[in-house]
C-alpha cells in the first residue's frame, strides 16, 4: 500500500461554513447601508466665531467714523441675529450649533453689556483679558482652541470666522486639518483692508458686509465726536489747547495720588506707564469732547502738557 498524505479540508468546503460567511457579509452590508442612510439624513452643522474687538472697530469706523467704543453704541443682539440669518441663507441644509462671541474684559469679569449678550439664545460669550491700553489679550488663543476642538470632534462641518487678525491663521489651519471648511466674513474698510492678507489666503471663502448692512446696528452717542468730525465742523484744537488739557489732567492726577507717585514717574521721563497714559487719554478726551485716537501729534502735545505740570511740582 502506498502512504497517502491526508488532505485537510478547507474551512469553506462545508456548505454550512459558506452559508455562515455569506450571512456575515449580508449583515455587514446591512449595517453599512444603515450607517450611510443615517449620514445622508444627518444635517451638517455650522458655528459662527466673532472677534468682538474686530466687529466693534470695523463697524464703528465704517458707520461712525471712529473705533472708540465710547463714541457709539453697537446693537450686538441685532448684529448677531443678522449674522445668523446670513449663515442660514448660505448654509440652507445646515443647522447652527451656536455663535461664539469673543471679547476682552478686566480680570475677565463680564460687563453689563457682555452679560446681556451672554443671555441671548445660541450665544456663548468667551472672555480674554483687557490690558491697561484697552487691548484684548488671549482672544485669538480662545478662538483657536474652540475652532480646533469642534472640528476635531466633528461637531461642525463649516465655521464662519468674523475677524481680521493674522494670528487667526493657525486657528484656520487647525480646523481645516480636521476637515472643516472655514469661511471668513469681514466688514468693509474705508480706503484699505482691515483683514490680514495671510488670513484671506488661507480660508475657503470670503464675504464682506458693506455700510448698508452695518448701519442699522451702529448709533453715534451724542456729545462725543471724532477729531475728524470736529475738523469738519470747525477749527480743531491747537497743540497748545491740548497741551493745556494735559497739564489740567496732571493736576487732577497729582491731587488724587500725592507727590509720592510723582517721584515714581519722573525717572521714566519722557515715557509714561501704560496705565497712566491710558488714564490721561481717557480724561483728556472727556474734557475735549472728542477722540484723539489716531492723531499722534496731538497725543504727544497732551503728554508734554502732562509732564510740564508734573516737573513744575518737583
TrEMBL record:
Gene3D superfamilies in UniProt: 5'-nuclease (3.40.50.1010)
Q: Which residues form the NYN domain?
A: 47-188
Extract the Pfam families matched here. NYN
- InterPro entries in UniProt: NYN
Protein known as: NYN domain-containing protein
Organism whose genome encodes this protein: Streptomyces orinoci
Amino acid at each position: 500500500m502506498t502512504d497517502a498524505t491526508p488532505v485537510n479540508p478547507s474551512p469553506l468546503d462545508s456548505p454550512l461554513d459558506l452559508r455562515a460567511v455569506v450571512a456575515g457579509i449580508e449583515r455587514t452590508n446591512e449595517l453599512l447601508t444603515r450607517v450611510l442612510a443615517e449620514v445622508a439624513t444627518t444635517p451638517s452643522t455650522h458655528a459662527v466665531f466673532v472677534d468682538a474687538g474686530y466687529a466693534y472697530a470695523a463697524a464703528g469706523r465704517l458707520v461712525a467714523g471712529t473705533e472708540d467704543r465710547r463714541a457709539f453704541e453697537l446693537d450686538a443682539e441685532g448684529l448677531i441675529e443678522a449674522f445668523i440669518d446670513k449663515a442660514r441663507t448660505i448654509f440652507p441644509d445646515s443647522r447652527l450649533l451656536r455663535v461664539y462671541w469673543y471679547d476682552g474684559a478686566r480680570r475677565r469679569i463680564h460687563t453689563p453689556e457682555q452679560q446681556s449678550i451672554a443671555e441671548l439664545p445660541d450665544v456663548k460669550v468667551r472672555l480674554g483679558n483687557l490690558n491697561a491700553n484697552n487691548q484684548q489679550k488671549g482672544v485669538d488663543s480662545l478662538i483657536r482652541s474652540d475652532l480646533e476642538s469642534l472640528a476635531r470632534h466633528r461637531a461642525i462641518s463649516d465655521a464662519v470666522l468674523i475677524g481680521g487678525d493674522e494670528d487667526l491663521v493657525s486657528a484656520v489651519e487647525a480646523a481645516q486639518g480636521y476637515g472643516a471648511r472655514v469661511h471668513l466674513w469681514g466688514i468693509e474698510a474705508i480706503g484699505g483692508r482691515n483683514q490680514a492678507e495671510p488670513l484671506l489666503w488661507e480660508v475657503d471663502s470670503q464675504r464682506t458686509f458693506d455700510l448698508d448692512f452695518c448701519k442699522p446696528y451702529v448709533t453715534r452717542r451724542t456729545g462725543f465726536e471724532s477729531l475728524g468730525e470736529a475738523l469738519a465742523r470747525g477749527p480743531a484744537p491747537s497743540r497748545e489747547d491740548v497741551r493745556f488739557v494735559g497739564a489740567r489732567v496732571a493736576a487732577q492726577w497729582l491731587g488724587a495720588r500725592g507727590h509720592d507717585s510723582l517721584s515714581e514717574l519722573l525717572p521714566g521721563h519722557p515715557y509714561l506707564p501704560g496705565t497712566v497714559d491710558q488714564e490721561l487719554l481717557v480724561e483728556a478726551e472727556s474734557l475735549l469732547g472728542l477722540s484723539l485716537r489716531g492723531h499722534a501729534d496731538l497725543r504727544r502735545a497732551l503728554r508734554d502738557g502732562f509732564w510740564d505740570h508734573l516737573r513744575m511740582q518737583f
